[in-house]
Amino acid sequence: MALSPLRNREERFVEVKHLSAPSRTYSLDFDTGEVGGRIIDGQEALRQWIRKAILTARYRYLIYDSQYGCELESLLGQDISHQLLKSEITRVITEAILADDRVTSVEQFAIVRDGDRLFVTFTVWTSEGILEQEVTI
Fold first, then answer.
1. What InterPro entries has UniProt attached to this entry (predicted)?
2. Residue 62 and residue 19: Cα distance in Å, rounded?
């Protein structure tokens, strides 16, 4: 019997191995908001996850837990200095991306303002390799 108190303590414990989540998913068309008919995996799926995590407002949608999404929306329209804005954008994007266990670090941010848009480029170190990513805010 598995739960017998007569068994040794060591025999009653089971070793559990942590497995990372599979990265296969459907492709998304960010321009139309539609789900594509193509299955993607690996770096392409991770790139899509990064972009979607950044563009999804954190705490807004009940379907996502509190670890998913980004708090960029709270920064838009704020009367803060350009340096503080760069610092906060770097922080919230890094927090959003590090929620995935495949990501080890996010670095080398470059933020360029063009009118009312911001172009943010950064490098993501992952289990899939090094990714250069760009998002427009």
1. Sheath_initiator (IPR020288)
2. 26
Q: Is the dihedral of CA 31, 34, 37, 42 positive or negative?
A: positive
Is pLDDT of 2 > 60? no
The answer to whether residues 130 and 51 touch, using CB atoms and an 8 Å cutoff, is no
Mean pLDDT of the chain: 85
* pTM score of the predicted model: 0.76
- Backbone dihedral angles phi then psi of residue 135, each to the nearest 5 degrees: -135, 150
Looking at per-residue confidence, does 134 or 18 come out higher?
134
Q: What is the CATH number of domain 21-136?
A: 3.10.450
